[in-house]
Design brief:
mainly alpha, single chain, 0% strand, 3 helices, 56% helix, 72 residues
């Protein structure tokens, strides 16, 4: 399984969990709409303490906020 499959899996799980919460009127990600509207990169990191993949990704995700991004 490559990185794209893992990210798509996390996105699918996030949507499956977040959809009923959003429909109920709760905002699971306060400030998300504003961050997207600002036009910069937005990362939604879904993790679990028991997940081996999550443990492997933790150091990489921790470096992301300090990594410069290029916009075209």
């Amino acid at each position: 399984m490559n990185r794209r499959h893992v990210l798509l899996s996390f996105a699918a799980v996030t949507l499956a969990i977040a959809t009923p919460v959003i429909a109920a009127g709760n905002d699971p990600l306060p400030g998300f709409k504003e961050a997207v509207a600002a036009g910069g990169p937005v990362l939604v990191h879904v993790t679990a303490p028991w997940c081996g993949e999550c443990k492997l990704q933790k150091p990489v995700v921790a470096k992301l906020p300090s990594t410069p991004t290029s916009r075209t």
